Amino acid sequence: MIKQLSISLSEYLAKNNNSLTEKDILKIQYTLQVLLGDLTKLTIIFLIFLFLNELSLFFLIFFILISTRPLLGGIHCKTYNSCLIVSIMYFIIILLFSNFSEKLNVNFYLVFFIVFFIITFAYVPCHNEKRPVKNKAILKILSLISLTFWVILFFEIPNIRLSNCIFVSIFLQIVQVCVVSMKGGVFYAKIYKSIFKHTN
After folding, report:
1. Residue 133 DSSP class
2. Which of 2, 100, 101, 152 is the most exposed place for a label (fewest CB within 10 A)?
3. CA atoms of 170 and 127, how far apart (whole Å)
4. Could you give the CA distance from residue 195 to residue 32 in angstroms, rounded to a whole number?
């Protein structure tokens, strides 16, 4: 449905703008698919957290996600449905682990955060097959700044649930970086290949 809608919208734009080339139309189609896909996924997850009366946690997870994933990179699914399922699982897992009643020993977290920083310094930004990463040094610095911000917030926030949410969110993001690095980089799904093969 999302694919058909993006195709219809891009075709409408093409009919009303003769200056658009086939390459432009394909890029517009791709952008629409990404935007509509992300919007629908976010709406579904939002409604789930609304039903669970956990909107505050939803927004915290979301803000951590948008401030780390674009910088550090992560795993990409092959289809919209698989991406939706993984995204819901991602949010729910963080929600469940956030309900731990108390923090563990401080040294436990310090060791993990040190490992997180080492992995970020060594492997970020992730290699991208279809989008060669430019300004790697800047992305690495921004990633370390973002990670530092959330680590400081983790130790400063008195609320245990929010602290747990921060820790698990960062942990899952670092795990993705490790997985992508072991695979040798980000390999995009069918949507990327089918569109970008026409635009190269």
Report:
1. P
2. 101
3. 20
4. 12
For residue 130, give the DSSP letter: S
Q: Give the structural domain span for 170.
A: 2-196
Q: Cβ distance 124 to 70 under 8 Å?
A: no
CA distances from 181 to 124, 129, 143, 147, 185 (A): 9, 12, 16, 18, 6
pLDDT, tens digit (0-9, with 9 covering 90-100), for 145-199: 999 999 999 999 999 999 999 999 999 999 999 988 887 655 444 444 443 344 4
pTM of the shown model:
0.81
What whole-number distance in Å separates Cα of residue 51 and Cα of residue 150? 27
- Report which DSSP code applies to 131: S
Among 119, 144, 59, which residue's Cα sits nearest to residue 94? 59
Q: Which two tokens stand for residue 32?
A: 């629409």
Side chain identity at 90, as an amino acid letter?
Y
The answer to whether the Cα torsion of 66, 71, 75, 80 is positive or negative is: positive
